[in-house]
Structures are given as structure tokens and as C-alpha cells.
Write a structure and sequence with these properties.
The complex is a heterodimer of chains A (305) and B (201).
Chain A lengths: L21 H16 L5 E2 L13 H10 L5 E6 L6 H14 L2 E2 L8 E5 L12 E5 L13 H9 L4 H14 L10 E3 L3 E3 L9 H4 L5 E6 L4 E5 L5 E3 L26 E5 L6 E5 L2 H16 L13
Parallel strand pairs in A: 2-3, 2-4, 4-5, 5-8
Antiparallel strand pairs in A: 1-9, 6-7, 6-10, 8-9, 11-12
Helix pairs in contact in A: 1-2
Chain B lengths: L16 H17 L5 E2 L12 H10 L6 E3 L6 H11 L12 E4 L24 E5 L10 E3 L18 H7 L9 E6 L2 E5 L4 E3 L1
Parallel strand pairs in B: 2-3, 3-4, 4-6
Antiparallel strand pairs in B: 1-7, 5-8, 6-7
Helix pairs in contact in B: 1-2
The chains are: A alpha/beta (305), B alpha/beta (201).
The structure holds zinc ion (ZN).
The site of zinc ion has 9 residues of chain A, from β12 and α7.
InterPro entries (chain B): PhnH-like_sp, Phosphonate_metab_PhnH
Pfam family, one (chain B): PhnH
Organism (chain B): Mesorhizobium tianshanense
């Protein structure tokens, strides 16, 4: 990625906080307010070229850059982790262009930019979750023409989406889709939740935090306000279900978090661990503290899988 | 901001435009995300008569050459017009349907909601946002607000609205997702009323 100095971005005010010029921020801010006013509706916006390739979360970055201020504390996660290349690059970008404080702790963050996960720790009022979205339109696979899907959204013609899901049931006996699972927002707009696992879909509903979605290539922004209905599509005879695991996290023993399978050695050893590293680390630290202070931790609790 | 020696009597805009607009925007976003709650602005600005501080701050934060503004009779003082022209560079329009923002200083005789632009069927976001200055956000008749952003119910008491306001507001739900969005302003306080909110009087 190139630094902020590589591009003409002077605002006339002498500098450009958070990389974007003031007029672009104003345009994105107006877009964000309309997105919150019409939950789940994709608002087109005049996206700007960012110093990162598409696929690096340029939509999310533009949203974050338009809302962030000196009092914020930013957390960036990718696949649930704060230390992946993508997350580190984006966090560094904002440290450079906005000099903002960063954190890896969900509870301390005022803005969390994410790809692929919603944190396990419940979010609070005052927190903002910014999703990086590669494909904002859940109807894109049904019809790639934007003017056609825009009409379907306008008239709430979502029958084709239901049919697609039902074809899954006919073929596989269940809905095969495990991530980017479409959901109805405020009982009106069908929304792509971005490539989060469907495990995370229920967290979007009635969340006290503000959820903003930015798609850089497609230049669209949408939102789920706090305390809003978000229903994953399903059928009476095939209700929506999230993934479950037989065991628990090998590191922190959580039985309620989303687990990733990781290879532990070159002899095929493997284990399941939390995808949300902050959540997992915190639980491990709490357990260590409990042990130190004489609390009882069941032996081998985390090892069974 | 440009300096224009021809307008020496003009009040200044924000002292620090970049950080003041960022802070004001976050308040505006909270007001839209949590409708019905009263949010005080944490930045101040010297407002032109007869605009309230929060209405002025909102315009400075969101309006520019891309957003035509309509002003009602009371709002359209020479001072307010010059201020908005100079600091926001927003075109002032007499056509309510082409306005992206409408500044209403006299709510009791405000135009009907459908006189403004409700957006288009396929682009409901292209609608007018109403900025309505009211005498009080708490001392008017209470109404129960429901919908996105509201945890169960909230009961603001917006004062100074015409009798037809709430019945007409609920009629607008028939054209949702088209519709107008509202900010109620009183001094340096504001309340958001996005179109998805339903109200029982
Ligand atoms: Zn764990």
C-alpha cells in the first residue's frame, strides 16, 4: 500500500484528516444517514479511489474514514483475528492518516472494522461495527444486472431468492449456504450480511450497536440501525440454523464461539480454536487468573474434541 | 474556507471545520440511529438569525454545492441566506421537490410532508431531509415512537407541530421505503425521526 502523501488530497484546510477530503466525507456522511434511515437498502455513493486494491476493504475503509475522530478507539479484525496482514495494514493506515488510538479489545473499541466475523463479545450502544463488503447485493447471483435487482428491491420481489434457497433443500436436504447468508432487514429489504458465517447472523438482530456496510468496488453503503429486526431467510419446514461443533475450543474451552480448525503439526494433528482471538485470549487470561487465585479448573477441559 | 471581503458582517463558521464537522456528524448519526432520543451538540457555532445552533451546525456539516436547500419564510432572512450561501455553497431553491434539505423555522405553518421529495421508487435515498426548528423537544404532546433504532418504545414531546403532522407522518408509511426524514431542532439539541419510525399519538 502507498502512503497518504502519494495522492493529491488537500482540502484547502491544509491537511486531510483520515485521508479523505472534506467533500468526499460529507458525501459519504449523507449516504450513511440515508442508509440508516432505510435499513438494509443499498445506497449508491460516489466512492473515491483508495490507496489499497479492491479486496482490501476499500468500502469499509471509506466508511471508517468518514466517521472516525480523535476520540475514537479503532479495532480491525479479519477472520476474527487482529493480527492478520489485512487487519494490520488497515489499522496501520488509520494510525498514520488519523493518528487514532487502536485496540484489540472488543469492549474498548468505539469503531470495529471487520471482515468475515462479528465479535463474540456482545456489542454495546455507542459502538459502531463497519463491515467490508465484496458484493453488497444478495440478488447478484440471481441476476447480475444492477438495474434489474434494483427493481426487485424496489418492489420487494424476493421470490427468486426463496426459490434458490429451496433448490438447495431439494438437492442437499438442507440450505447449503454457510456464509453471506441473506437476511431480511426491518421486514422489508433483503440484505447481504457480507461473508460472515451464518453463525453470526443472529448477532445482527436487535444489536445495540450501529452496523454499517461499505462496498468499495460496487460503491454502495447500507446499514442496520440498533434494535432492528434482521431475519435470516428460511422455510417453515427448514428453519434457519447456525453451525455447531461437537467439542469446545482447545485453548479456552468455549462451547459457544465460532471455531476454526487449525493444523498443529506436520503429522496431521489438528484442533479447533476460537476464530475470535480477542475473545479467546481474554478467556484464557481469565482462566489463568482463576487458577492462580486458587480457583478450580477442570483438568483437560480444553483438550477433548 | 474562502475569505470574502464583500461580506464582512458574516458570522464565522466552525473554528476547526475538519474536527467540528466530524463531531457534529457523529451526533447526527446517533440521532438517526437512535430516533427519539435528545442529543446535545458538543460543538458550538455562532448561528445566523433566525437559525438555531444545531440547524446551523447540521448545514455546515452536511450541505454543499450538491445539495439544494429550501428555506421557509421565517428561515429565509438575508442573514441566513448569505451565511448558507457563503459557508455551505449550497444552491437555494424555491422548489420543494428538488430540495435535498429543507429548513423550517415556523413549524406551525410548514408545508405538507408530501410537498417535499420522497425519493424515487428505485432510489428512495434521493429524498428531502427536513430540518424543523421547534420550541421544545420535551414539552409538546407526547407520542409513542416505534421502529428501527428504538428499543421497544420512546416517547418524545415535540412541541409546535401542526395538528396534521403525525397522521400525515403515518400515512407516509404507505410509500415506504420512499419518504422524508426529519431532524427536530431546538437550540443546540436535536432529535432524529427517520422515515421507518411509526408514531402513535
Ligand atoms: Zn477459545
Amino acid at each position: 500500500m502507498s502512503g497518504p502523501g502519494n495522492k493529491q488530497c488537500d482540502t484547502g484546510d491544509g491537511y486531510s484528516f483520515a485521508y479523505l477530503d472534506e467533500q468526499t466525507k460529507r458525501m459519504i456522511r449523507r449516504t450513511l444517514l440515508k442508509a440508516l434511515s432505510i435499513p438494509g437498502y443499498q445506497v449508491p455513493f460516489g466512492g473515491r479511489e483508495m490507496p489499497l486494491a479492491y479486496g482490501w476493504g476499500t468500502g469499509g475503509i471509506q466508511v471508517t474514514a468518514s466517521i472516525i475522530g480523535p476520540d475514537d478507539r479503532l479495532k480491525v479484525i479479519d477472520q476474527g483475528a487482529d493480527d492478520t496482514t489485512n487487519a494490520v495494514s488497515i489499522r496501520r493506515f488509520f494510525e498514520i492518516v488519523s493518528n487514532v488510538a487502536t485496540t484489540e479489545q472488543t469492549a474498548e473499541a468505539t469503531i470495529i472494522q471487520t471482515r468475515h466475523r462479528i465479535p463474540e463479545a456482545p456489542l454495546q450502544e455507542g459502538q459502531i461495527l463497519v463491515y467490508q463488503v465484496p458484493q453488497p447485493d444478495p440478488l447478484h447471483k440471481i441476476d447480475p444486472r444492477e438495474n434489474e435487482t434494483r427493481k426487485m428491491h424496489a418492489y420487494a420481489e424476493y421470490g427468486a431468492m426463496q426459490v434458490t434457497l429451496y433448490e438447495d433443500i431439494a438437492r442437499f436436504g438442507r440450505i447449503a449456504r454457510t456464509y453471506d447468508y441473506p437476511a431480511m432487514v426491518n421486514a422489508r429489504h433483503l440484505m447481504s450480511p457480507s461473508p460472515i458465517p451464518k453463525f453470526d447472523n443472529p448477532k445482527m438482530e436487535n444489536n445495540p450497536a450501529i452496523q454499517l456496510f461499505g462496498a468499495g468496488r460496487e460503491k454502495r453503503i447500507y446499514a442496520v440501525p440498533p434494535y432492528t429486526s434482521v431475519r435470516s431467510l428460511d422455510f417453515d419446514d427448514h428453519p434457519f440454523e447456525v453451525q455447531t461443533w461437537k467439542g469446545c475450543c482447545a485453548l479456552c474451552s468455549s462451547t459457544v464461539s465460532y471455531l476454526d480448525e487449525v493444523v498443529t503439526d506436520d503429522r496431521g494433528g489438528r484442533m479447533f480454536v476460537c476464530s475470535d482471538t480477542d475473545y479467546c485470549n481474554k478467556r484464557q487470561a481469565d482462566r489463568a487468573l482463576t487458577t492462580e487465585t486458587g480457583g478450580i479448573v477442570a483438568p483437560d477441559e480444553g483438550a477433548k474434541l | 474556507m474562502k475569505r470574502d471581503l464583500a461580506a464582512p458582517e458574516l458570522r464565522p463558521a466552525f473554528a476547526d471545520p475538519v474536527f467540528d464537522t466530524q463531531a457534529v456528524f457523529r451526533t447526527l448519526m446517533s440521532a438517526v440511529a437512535y430516533p427519539g432520543r435528545i442529543f446535545p451538540l458538543d460543538r458550538s457555532v455562532s448561528a445566523p438569525h433566525p437559525l438555531d445552533v444545531a440547524a446551523t451546525a447540521l448545514c455546515l456539516t452536511l450541505a454543499d454545492f450538491e445539495t439544494p436547500i429550501w428555506l421557509d419564510g421565517r428561515a429565509s432572512s438575508d442573514e441566513a441566506r448569505s451565511y448558507l450561501r457563503f459557508h455551505c455553497e449550497a444552491p437555494q431553491t424555491t422548489d420543494k421537490k428538488s430540495a435535498r434539505f429543507a429548513l423550517i423555522a415556523d413549524p406551525s405553518s410548514m408545508p405538507h410532508l408530501m410537498d417535499f421529495h420522497p425519493g424515487d421508487v428505485e432510489f428512495p435515498d434521493r429524498s428531502t431531509t427536513l430540518i424543523v426548528q421547534v420550541p421544545s423537544l420535551t414539552e409538546g404532546p407526547t407520542a409513542s415512537w416505534f421502529g428501527p433504532g428504538i428499543n421497544q418504545v420512546i416517547k418524545p414531546g415535540i412541541a409546535g407541530l401542526p395538528d396534521w403532522f403525525w397522521p400525515e407522518w403515518n400515512l407516509c408509511s404507505e410509500i415506504y421505503p420512499m419518504g422524508v426524514d426529519v431532524f427536530f431542532i431546538s437550540g443546540d439539541m436535536l432529535v432524529g425521526l427517520p422515515r421507518a419510525v411509526r408514531v402513535e399519538v
